[in-house]
Amino acid sequence: MLRLIRTTSDHPDFCALVQLLDHDLAVRDGADHAFYAQFNKIDTIRHAVVAYLDDEPVGCGAFKPYAEKQVEIKRMYVQPAHRGQGVAPAVLAALEAWADELGYHGCVLETGLKQPEAIRLYEKSGYQRIPNYGQYIGVENSVCMEKAL
Known about the structure:
This protein is an alpha+beta fold. It is built from four helices and seven strands; from the N terminus they run βααβββαβαββ. The protein has helices at about 10-30, 35, 85-100, 115-125; strands spanning about 1-5, 45-55, 55-65, 70-80, 105-110, 130, 140-149. Strand 4 (about 70-80), helix 3 (about 85-100) and strand 5 (about 105-110) form a beta-alpha-beta unit. The chain is globular.
């Protein structure tokens, strides 16, 4: 049974999953990884979700304030052995519900063309592509999306 907890970026299971995510992204992004890594620090994240199956941490995600009424979804990851089991949609829905509870009206996010499964997840979850924002403007591999809550 899937169990989700709300926590912060200090949680050891969240940190362990983020290390796995960073390794995966380093392989996918190759030489571009250093550019993206600078925007993925977790030390200031106060809203994180960790997903457990049978007490094993299998997935995570987080958000941070982006604009006055928007959050940016960050650090979404599911261990490969547990993909396709509904973990990522559950984590994303939990993050959106939490942001909504805090009074935010929408979410933005950035993912990459080398993460087609992430793009499919976000599209199935109601996210729409938008022009690249902030540090991702002009970055060909970046795909930026948003969703109203």
